[in-house]
Design a protein that fits this description.
456 residues; 3-stranded antiparallel β-sheet
Length: 456
C-alpha cells in the first residue's frame, strides 16, 4: 500500500493533494517524443516521472503548485512594470548624452523602416511575457478559489504555445553584449529599468519552471478514463491512440487518424500532418535567408562622419580586436554555430528518420531536444542591434543604424524554431526495431514510468 502525503487542510483544494491522491484509477501517458505508453507512479514534491523508453520527462511535481506559480507570476509582472516605467540605459560621449527606455529598443527601429524587427523585439520581451503572466494569474486565481474563471481552459492551452517565444533572458545577454561593445567608446550608466528587467527575466524563468501542467489540468478539468483496452509497454499508435500534446490525456483516434482531446479540445493526430514536408520547406527558407543575413551589414556605425558597415562576422572580428574574446565567442556561437548547426542537425534528422533503430533512436532524440532548446538564443544579435540603434544616437559624432541583415537574420531564427516545432520526433521511433533488440524491447514493455528527483 502506497502512503500518500497530503498538505494542510487549510490549503486550497487545488494544492491540498496531488492528482494521484484524488483518484484510485491508474493514470496513463503516451510520451510526446517516442509514443510509449506508461503508467504514472505516485509522485511527491520534487519528483518527476520519465519515459522508460526515451527518458523524456512526462510529469514534474511541485509543492503548492498553484500558489507558487501565481506568486512568481505576480512578482514578475511587478518587475516588468518597473522595467518599462524607468530609464533603461544612458550614455555620454564628448558632452553628448542619450537615455532610452526599454520600449524604445523596439520603437526606434520603426523610424529606420524596420517595423517587422521592431514588432519581433517588443513581442518577445514585453507583450508575450505579459500575456503569459496575466494568463497564469487568471488561471491560478480561479483554481485557488475552487471555481475556475471563464476561458481558463483556453488560457491553459495557450501557455505551452507562448513559452518558446518569450526571450527576456536572451535579451539580457544581448544587453550585456551591447554594453561591452560601447564601454570603451562612451560613459554608460545602467538605469533602474535594467536591474528590474534582469529580475523580471529571472522571475519569468522561475514562473515557467514552476508550472505543474499535470496537476493544473487535473484540477481544472479532472481526468477522463483512458480508452478501454489501453496497454502500457507499447506505442500508442499501434493501439489507435495518441497522447494530447497539451494536457497529456490519452485519446482514441478516428479511423482517419484524427480527433480532438476530450479534456482540452486540442486537435489530435497520430503524427503531425506533413511533418517532414513542412520541416523541409522551413529549412529551405531559413537556409535561403541565411545568405543575405551574412552578406549584408547587420548595422552601420557612424563615428565623426565616417560610416562603417558591419556584418555578423565583422562584428565578431571587431570584438576580438577589442580584446573581448568571451563576448566574441558568445556572438559567434549564437549567430553562426547555432543557426548552421541547427540547419545541419534538422536536415540530417529528416534524411535518416526512416532508418532509425533502437541503438541510435535515443541519440537522435537527444539531438532533436538540443536543436529545439538552442534555437531561440540566436536572437542575441538582433537584440544587440535593437539596443545599440536606440541608444547610440549622437548625429555625425556617433550613431548606429540597422542594416538589412537584421530582418534576414531574425527570419532565420524564427524559421529554424518553426522547423524544430514541425518536426515530429516520434517519427524517429516508428521504424520497426531490429531483431537483435527484441530482448531489450521486451524488458521495456515490463517497465512503467520511472521516478527520480528533480534537480534543484
Amino acid at each position: 500500500m502506497i502512503k500518500r502525503r497530503t498538505l494542510s487542510v487549510n490549503t486550497p483544494l487545488v494544492d491540498q493533494s496531488p492528482p494521484e491522491a484524488r483518484t484510485q484509477r491508474r493514470r496513463l501517458r503516451a510520451c510526446h517524443e517516442c509514443d510509449w505508453v506508461s503508467a504514472l507512479p505516485p509522485l511527491n514534491s520534487g519528483e518527476k516521472a520519465s519515459c522508460p523508453r526515451c527518458s523524456h520527462v512526462l510529469v514534474k511535481r511541485h509543492r503548492y503548485p498553484a500558489q507558487r506559480s501565481m506568486a512568481l507570476a505576480i512578482a514578475s509582472l511587478i518587475a516588468l512594470i518597473v522595467a518599462v516605467s524607468f530609464p533603461f540605459i544612458s550614455f555620454t560621449v564628448s558632452g553628448v548624452s542619450n537615455r532610452i527606455e526599454l520600449t524604445q529598443t523596439a520603437t526606434t527601429l520603426i523610424g529606420f523602416h524596420q517595423p517587422v524587427v521592431a514588432i519581433a523585439v517588443i513581442m518577445t520581451i514585453v507583450v508575450l511575457p505579459a500575456v503569459y503572466l496575466l494568463g497564469i494569474v487568471w488561471l491560478q486565481f480561479g483554481l485557488l478559489r475552487d471555481h475556475p474563471l471563464p476561458f481558463s481552459r483556453d488560457i491553459a492551452r495557450s501557455l505551452s504555445y507562448l513559452t518558446p517565444w518569450m526571450m527576456a533572458d536572451v535579451f539580457i545577454i544581448g544587453a550585456l553584449v551591447s554594453l561591452i561593445k560601447i564601454a570603451g567608446l562612451a560613459d554608460v550608466q545602467l538605469g533602474i529599468s535594467f536591474w528590474a528587467f534582469c529580475a523580471f527575466a529571472l522571475l519569468l524563468l522561475m514562473t515557467t519552471q514552476s508550472i505543474d501542467a499535470d496537476w493544473m489540468w487535473f484540477s481544472l478539468e479532472g481526468e477522463p478514463l483512458a480508452p478501454e483496452g489501453t496497454e502500457t509497454g507499447a506505442t500508442a499508435a499501434v493501439q489507435g491512440l495518441t497522447g494530447c500534446p497539451t494536457c497529456g490525456l490519452i485519446n482514441r483516434l478516428s479511423p482517419r487518424g484524427r480527433s480532438h482531446c476530450t479534456r482540452c479540445h486540442e486537435k489530435l493526430h497520430q503524427r503531425l500532418p506533413h511533418s517532414l514536408q513542412r520541416t523541409w520547406a522551413l529549412l529551405g527558407a531559413s537556409a535561403t535567408m541565411y545568405i543575405p543575413a551574412n552578406v549584408y551589414p547587420i548595422m552601420t556605425t557612424t563615428s565623426l562622419g565616417n560610416s562603417s558597415p558591419s556584418t555578423i562576422i565583422g562584428g565578431v572580428v571587431q570584438l576580438i580586436q577589442m580584446g573581448s574574446w568571451p563576448i566574441a565567442a558568445v556572438i559567434f556561437i549564437a549567430s553562426v554555430i547555432v543557426p548552421v548547426g541547427k540547419l545541419v542537425a534538422l536536415t540530417w534528422l529528416c534524411l535518416v528518420v526512416k532508418r532509425s533503430d533502437a541503438l541510435n533512436a535515443n541519440t537522435r532524440t537527444r539531438l532533436y531536444r538540443l536543436t529545439e532548446f538552442i534555437g531561440r538564443w540566436s536572437m542575441v544579435d538582433v537584440f544587440v542591434v535593437a539596443i545599440l540603434v536606440a541608444l547610440i544616437r549622437a548625429g555625425s559624432l556617433m550613431s548606429i543604424t540597422p542594416g538589412p541583415a537584421a530582418l534576414a537574420f531574425g527570419s532565420v531564427v524564427v524559421l529554424t524554431m518553426l522547423a524544430a516545432m514541425t518536426f515530429d520526433p516520434r517519427l524517429i521511433w516508428d521504424t520497426p526495431l531490429p531483431q537483435r533488440n527484441s530482448s531489450r524491447l521486451s524488458l521495456l514493455r515490463r517497465k512503467t514510468a520511472t521516478k527520480e528527483p528533480v534537480d534543484g
